[in-house]
Design goal:
12 helices; two-stranded antiparallel ribbon; mainly alpha; two-stranded antiparallel sheet
């Protein structure tokens, strides 16, 4: 009887490598030995199998199994040692992007698991061109000293003082109450591109949101009144509202310092 299953599994894509790299650093932090039965390795294998970025017919029985996940660690070990790995350009791209930004790695890994980044699986060095351009603009600004540049760059990448201040103030998603920090996004109320440097670092210009609410707020599909009551855009269909569990009773408790930013968002970002 002929075995019609593919002899070779498809190459790893950037979103898959991102998950493997996140597992790699989790094990390094814990000091545990990477084995095929370690819970982190097994769970990563299960998540990879559920992603669906490769057609089922392209997979053989060893598709993204724990042993395959563990073998990615060997490549990462070589990169950590400064060695070259021929024919693995995508590995170096993911490594270079995240090796010094493990907070962002954890956030993006959570986004991949939630299906947010799967559509952009070829991440390359940086899929967020807008963020990259903003960072370069910050670094080239002669009016900023090195301390200010560092704070702004970290803020733009979703970490640093701004995120820490939002975690301290809100402690959870301001809307859903989700407390898992790996899933929470430090979201600017007055968009980064329109804000002054002081406003970019102002924690009152921020909401701590779960990925779904961050996307809804950022795209102007929801806004808030001064008393914290949610305002729903007519561009958000009743079907989508129902599917996402969105209703008009949602309310946030704002401080008076939030109000100018909330007004700006409602006037210039909200899709009325």
């Amino acid at each position: 009887m002929n075995d019609e299953s593919p002899k070779r599994n498809p190459d790893w894509r950037a979103a898959e490598l991102l998950l493997a790299l996140n597992a790699y650093f989790e094990l390094r932090r814990s000091g545990d030995k990477a084995t095929d039965t370690h819970s982190t390795v097994v769970r990563t294998s299960q998540v990879l199998n559920a992603l669906g970025v490769h057609p089922q017919e392209k997979r053989n029985s060893k598709f993204r199994d724990p042993a395959g996940v563990r073998r990615r660690f060997r490549y990462f070990d070589k990169l950590a040692a400064g060695e070259e790995i021929k024919g693995r350009v995508e590995y170096r791209a993911v490594w270079e992007r995240y090796r010094d930004d493990l907070d962002q790695l954890r956030f993006d890994a959570a986004d991949v698991e939630n299906g947010i980044l799967v559509a952009a699986e070829e991440l390359g060095p940086d899929p967020y061109d807008e963020i990259s351009r903003d960072v370069q603009t910050i670094l080239a600004d002669p009016q900023l000293d090195e301390t200010e540049k560092d704070a702004l760059v970290k803020t733009r990448k979703g970490q640093g003082r701004f995120r820490k201040e939002l975690l301290k103030f809100w402690n959870e998603c301001a809307i859903s109450g989700c407390k898992n920090q790996a899933l929470l996004v430090a979201s600017h109320i007055k968009p980064w591109a329109k804000a002054k440097n002081r406003e970019r670092l102002d924690p009152f210009n921020g909401l701590l949101l779960s990925p779904t609410w961050d996307r809804l707020f950022d795209t102007g599909l929801v806004a808030f009144a001064e008393n914290g009551t949610v305002i729903l855009s007519p561009y958000l269909s009743p079907e989508d509202r129902s599917a996402l569990g969105i209703h008009s009773r949602i309310k946030i408790k704002f401080s008076k310092e939030h109000i100018p930013y909330i007004r700006y968002h409602r006037r210039y970002v909200f899709r009325a």
